[in-house]
Sequence to fold (187 residues):
Amino acid sequence: METTTLKAKLRTAGTKGQLNAMRRAGSIPAVCYADKKDPIHVTLDAHEFGVRWVPGKKNSVFTLDIEGGQKVDVVVHEVQRDVISQAVTHIDFMLVDPSKPVKVTVPVKLVGMPIGVKVEGGIMYQDAYKVRVSCMPDAIPTGYEFDVSDLHSNKTVYVSDIDLKGATLVDSDHKVLLRITKGRSES
Fold:
């Protein structure tokens, strides 16, 4: 499993004022969560995180090298940003065990122009832009593409129709990915 290493420092939970002081000093407060374990409160260098984290690859696995010799594998669960400057203000990480599957949200991109729209005059509605799956940490997909070129009007496609490439669907099988409705006929 290929990971990116980030240096982190342990911190106490801290008050709002203390966390703001950390941000002004160029650090980002973060918390690492895991099932049945106490959270680990850390700070990261804001510049280093900004250089190594690509927002479109939210599910990348990072190794946090925590001051004192502890190393943990994590994925980004949530990134909070300042409303005006868009600077990262807080990160929630999810601890991962390389031998156990993780649940992640993966984007879905539709590819092509459906026959039901191009030829039959239908209208396509994409209901789901992301799908929740379970997979091993070394096999986390960056995204799924679904080809809609052969779809006709009055067609509904469910997230269970996506080729998940070895992952297991966590969302309901009945969650609608897209619908192509018949266009109005002119009278």
Remarks:
- Residues 16-24 form the longest helix (9 residues).
- The chain has two domains: 4-95, 102-181.
- The chain has a mean pLDDT of 85.
- The longest strand covers residues 70-81.
